[in-house]
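Here is one chain, start to finish.
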Amino acid sequence: MAKTGDFLVIGVRMDADNQHINQLKVKPFTASDKVGDDAVMSRPEAVKMIEAGKLFYSGTLGADRKWNIGAQVQVISVTTKFLKTKADQSSRDNLENLPKF
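Its structure:
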């Protein structure tokens, strides 16, 4: 089975002003499309990895305790590079709606 992506984003940590994402809590996808242990990475680390071709998706934990894959995370550039989810049919999987850690 081909991997879905490289990382599932399961939480975000905002800056002191609660305006921008500082860090992401992620779970790496394994070769068998399972998810690994939690890891934390900075926004610049995630931006660099996405720009290098790694795929990040938002993830929410379902009632069945299984991870649901949401929207793809992409880089947008304003005055600095930010992260956002690609538009889809749900706001539940948007980065700002993921659990804070």
